[in-house]
Amino acid sequence: MHFDIVVIGAGSGNMIADSRFADKSVAIVEEASFGGTCLNVGCIPSKMYAHTADLVDAVSDAPRFGIPADGAVSANWVQVRDRIFDQLDRDARDARRGREDTPNITVLTGTAAFVAPKSLTVTSGDGSTTDISGDRIVVAAGSRPVVPDALSQAGIDCHTSDSIMRVDAAPRRLAVLGGGYIGVEFAHVFRSFGSSVTVIEPSDTLLSGHDHTITTTFTNTVASHYDLRLRNSVTDAHRADDGIVLSLDDGSTVTVDMVLAATGRTPNSDRLACAAAGIDLDDTGHVVIDAQQRTNIDGIFALGDICASVPLKHVANREAKVVADNLLDPDQPSIMDDDLVPSAVFTDPQIASIGKTEQQLKDAGTAYKIGVKKYSDVAFGWALQDETGVCKILVDRDTDRILGAHILGPQAATLIHILSVAMQFDIPATQLAARPFWTHPTLPELIENTLLELD
Ligand SMILES: Cc1cc2nc3c(=O)[nH]c(=O)nc-3n(C[C@H](O)[C@H](O)[C@H](O)COP(=O)(O)OP(=O)(O)OC[C@H]3O[C@@H](n4cnc5c(N)ncnc54)[C@H](O)[C@@H]3O)c2cc1C
Ligand SMILES: NC(=O)c1ccc[n+]([C@@H]2O[C@H](COP(=O)([O-])OP(=O)(O)OC[C@H]3O[C@@H](n4cnc5c(N)ncnc54)[C@H](O)[C@@H]3O)[C@@H](O)[C@H]2O)c1
C-alpha cells in the first residue's frame, strides 16, 4: 500500500492529519492505544491521580485551619483508578474510531519498522505483516521507560509508569527508583493512598536538574514524607517471605511490596529500525532534527519524545503543528523554537520553572540580579498558611530581561505562565513589576514582590 503521508505513532502524531489534509491519503500506524503516552499512561492519568492526592492532603491538613477532621484520610484506589481509566480508555477508543471513520485516513494496527527510507513493514499482534510506503513519513513513535539492570537481571517484577497506575491496590510499601519527574509525582500519589514510600536516588537531591533553591527546599520539605535514600541506587534484589528486598550502594537494604522504576526513558528509534532508513540518531538514540523538524532524509520528519528535543507534551504538540505546516507548505517553513519551555512537576509541593537556573548563569559567567520571595511574604500565602513555598527570579543585570524563574508551592504550575508570557514577549522585569495591576490578595503578587526585590 502506498500513501501520500505515513504517520508512525498516534500520540502527538495523531494531531497531524487535520482537515487541511483531506485531499491526501494518510496512513496512521499505531501499535497500542490512540492518544499515546500522554492520554494513556502519562500526563493525564498521572495528573488525575495527583489532583486526587492533593485533595487527600488538603483534607489531612484541615485541622491546621481549625476544621476538625478526625482519623487518617485516605483515598479509595479502585474507585479512583476506575474513574480515571473509564474516562481515558473511552477517549482513546473514540480517538481511534474518529480516525477510522475519516475517508482519507487508513489506520494500521501494529508495530512499524523501516526497511528502506520510505518503506516500512507493519507487524500486527497475530504476526501478520503489511508492507507500506509513503511519499513523506512522520516519525512520532515516542519513548519508553527504562528499568535498571539490577532489577531486570534479578528477575524482579518491576512496575514502570506504563503499568503502575492500573494495579489492583496501592501497595503497603513502595520503593520508587529515581527522584526525577515521575519518581516524585508518584511518590506523592502513593503516599496519599496510604503507601509507605522509599525513594532511591543516586544524586544528592531530588529533581537534581532544577535550580538548587528548588531542589534543596523540595528535598528538605519531603524528607519527612518519604524514606529518602539519596546517593544510592539498587545493586541487587531478591524476593523474600516478607517482600522484595533491595540492596543499596551503601550496604543497606529496603524491603517493599512493589517497586516502581522511574529512572528515565529511551527513544523508540531502535524498535522502529530508524537505522534501516538511514535516519541520523544522536548517541542516546534520539532522532536528530533541524528547526523545521526535518530529519537528514528528504521527506522524513520527526516530532516528540523520539527526537532530540525537550521531552514534554506541550513541546510535542508544537512540533506536530510545525510538521503539519511544513508538510502542507514547505516553501513557507514553520520554525520550531523551544528556547523557553515552561515545565511543571505535579508533586507536593508543586514545582514549576522556565529558563536558566542560577547554576547555569554562574557557569556561563552571566551578570544577573536575583529576587527570592517566600509565599509567606504575601497575603495569599498567609491565607494558605504556607510555610515552604518560594519564588526565585533571575534577571539579566545589563538588559533587565528575565532569564529564569523557579517556583515551589501551591499553584506553581499556573503561576509560571505569567513569567513565560513575559519572557516570550521580552517584557523587561521592572516593567512587568510596575505596569500591570496585581490583584490583591492573590498568589501572582508573589511574582510582583519577587520582581520588586531584585537585588
Ligand atoms: C508518567 C508520565 C507523566 C508525564 N507527565 C507529563 C506532564 O505532566 N506534562 C508534560 O508536558 N509531559 C508529561 N509527560 C511526557 C509526555 O507524556 C510526552 O512528552 C509526550 O506524550 C510525548 O509524545 P509523543 O507523541 O512523542 O510520544 P507518545 O505519546 O509516546 O506516542 C508515540 C506512539 O507511538 C507508538 N509507537 C511506538 N513505536 C511504534 C512502532 N514501531 N510502530 C507503531 N507505533 C509505535 C506508541 O504506542 C505511542 O502511541 C509525562 C510522561 C510520563 C511517562
Ligand atoms: N510533569 C511533567 O512534565 C512530567 C511528569 C512525568 C514525566 N515527565 C517526562 O518524563 C521524562 C521521564 O521521567 P523520569 O522521572 O523517568 O526521568 P528523569 O530524567 O526526570 O529522572 C530520572 C531519575 O532517575 C535517577 N536514576 C537514574 N538511574 C537510576 C537508578 N539506577 N536507580 C535510581 N535512580 C536512578 C536519575 O538520577 C534521575 O533523578 C521526564 O524527563 C519528563 O520529560 C514529565
Automatic annotation (TrEMBL):
Binds 1 FAD per subunit. It comes from Rhodococcoides kyotonense. This is Mycothione reductase. The keyword Disulfide bond applies. Residues 341-448 form the Pyridine nucleotide-disulphide oxidoreductase dimerisation domain. InterPro entries: FAD/NAD-bd_sf, FAD/NAD-binding_dom, FAD/NAD-linked_Rdtase_dimer_sf, Pyr_nuc-diS_OxRdtase, Pyr_nucl-diS_OxRdtase_dimer, Pyr_OxRdtase_I_AS. It comes from the Bacteria. Disulfide bonds join 38-43. NAD(+) binds at residues 178-185, 201, 264, 305. Keywords: Disulfide bond, FAD, Flavoprotein, NAD, NADP, Nucleotide-binding, Oxidoreductase, Redox-active center. NCBIfam families: PRK07846.1. Its cofactor is FAD. FAD binds at residue 47.
